[in-house]
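Hey,
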Amino acid sequence: MTLKKTQPDKNKLNQIVTDARRNQELREQSYRGQALKLFPWICGRCAREFTHKNLTELTVHHKNHNHDDNPSDGSNWELLCLYCHDNEHSRYEETRFGNSQSSRTTASVATHNPFADLKNLLGSKK
């Protein structure tokens, strides 16, 4: 039994390329695409730098948390890495809705101050 190789349909391949280019243009016109053109590829919180290789880990954060507010000048956007973006939304939810987890957990408060006697320690070295 021999397998017959079939040639790909050139019209189908052309349509795939056309669709891919159109989708890329639509993405670039989206607020994420606009933000990536406006701002350097650096997280606005932790200053981590991004390249084409890891650009998917850089997100657009809406400063006022309104995803429908997308001015073309980017004044409501900031680029944040996945981790900082998640942290920002966690902090926002805690202030907006109250921290329900803090009432459940009883975290101990640090009482030790490692710099308490620093002035005396530095003064004794003179």
